[in-house]
Amino acid sequence: MSLGPTPVTSNMKPVRMYTTEICPFCIRAKALLRQRGVAQIDEVRVDLDPQQRTRMMELTGRRTVPQIFIGETHVGGCDDLMALDQRGGLAPMLAGA
Fold first, then answer.
1. Are residues 23 and 50 in contact, defined by beta-carbon separation less than 8 angstroms?
2. Is the confidence at residue 94, as pLDDT, over 60?
3. Which of 61, 68, 90, 91 could cysteine-pair with 85, CB 3.0–4.6 Å?
């Protein structure tokens, strides 16, 4: 008995996003990622843990949220994610291509 095709999300690279509670750009970025099949986002709340904001700034050189990583690759913020998607680069990056 077949259980059907394996979900696309099972092969996707992990996504980590540095966020704050009230951030419209974070909400927009999460919505786009979910539209592209990302089932789980490792969300790091920098408003709850100042050390995480420091870590985010060390990793990215940026102070603003969201800061998005796909696998080990720093994608950037919401605008960077949207531009990557518009260029057709988001799906292949999520798939590990």
1. no
2. yes
3. 90
What does R_g of the chain's alpha carbons equal in angstroms?
A: 14
Q: What is residue 10's predicted lDDT score, i.e. its pLDDT?
A: 59
Give 7's DSSP letter.
P
Compute how many other C-beta atoms are within 10 angstroms of the C-beta atom of residue 11: 11
Contact 84, 90 (CB under 8 A): yes
Q: Can you point out the beta strands (E) in the chain?
A: 15-19, 41-45, 67-70, 73-76
CATH 3.40.30.10 fits 12-95, yes or no: yes
- Its pTM stands at 0.87
